[in-house]
Amino acid sequence: VLSKNSQTFSFKANGKPDLIDADAERTVLCEKTENKTADNYIFQYTNTPLYTQRYEAIVKLAELQKTNPSAKKCLVDALNDHAYHIREFAVRKLEIPKTDTTNIYTTIETLAKKDKSSWVRKAAIEKLSNSPKDSSYTSLFENSIGDSSYEVAGASLKALNEVNSVKALRIAKQFEKEKDNNIVTAVADIYAKQGDSLYQSYFSDKLRKSAELSK
After folding, report:
1. 38-47 and 51-64 helices cross at what angle (nearest 10)?
2. How far apart (Å, rounded) are the C-alpha atoms in residues 42 and 180?
3. Residue 31 three-state SS
4. What confidence tens digit (pLDDT) does each residue in 9-54 have?
5. What is the C-alpha radius of gyration for the chain, rounded to an integer number of angstroms?
6. This prediction's pTM
7. What is the pLDDT of residue 200?
8. How many other CB atoms are there within 10 angstroms of residue 145's CB atom?
9. Which of 6, 8, 166, 193 sits most deeply, having the most CB atoms within 10 A of its CB?
10. CB atoms within 10 A of CB 165
11. Virtual CA dihedral for 196, 199, 204, 210, nearest 10 degrees?
């Protein structure tokens, strides 16, 4: 029990603890400084039940992945976490070597196709679009433009433009009347990269409508 401005607590232990986690339920309003090792954070992610504990651990492990193979493995495991925020974080932060010998991209491709969370699907699409083998996902990007989520559809249209600008341009024209910002941004990005005054009217129209809405 905290009852003074400054207190020191010590506890007897039979051996070195796997984890010391102050305020395990994250209910105390405080600033906290800890000296946890990578192994401590791995244990915390693997064994603690609360989302906040696991998310906190995986954030730290993402920072350690370059120098600690076990931290990277834990981050890979987080791609299958039951909390979608953690899956999304793992997808975005995982650093994958150019020679992917562990088939991490295969797992991310599955997430792009089947994950229940649109946030995760979008993150997976964007990750694949920045991979060394992005062109091999052309069909996936095209199919995902039909996703029920505008966020995923917009990300997929942008990704397709990176590997097949001709096809992306043709599809973009079908979405010119779409009002959702994710789609508008994707179409605008494709038209801008064309560098053709032919598409100037699209930008003029969107700017005019935006001005009308702000009045």
Report:
1. 150
2. 40
3. coil
4. 999 999 999 999 988 888 888 888 999 999 999 999 999 989 999 9
5. 23
6. 0.88
7. 84
8. 23
9. 193
10. 14
11. -120
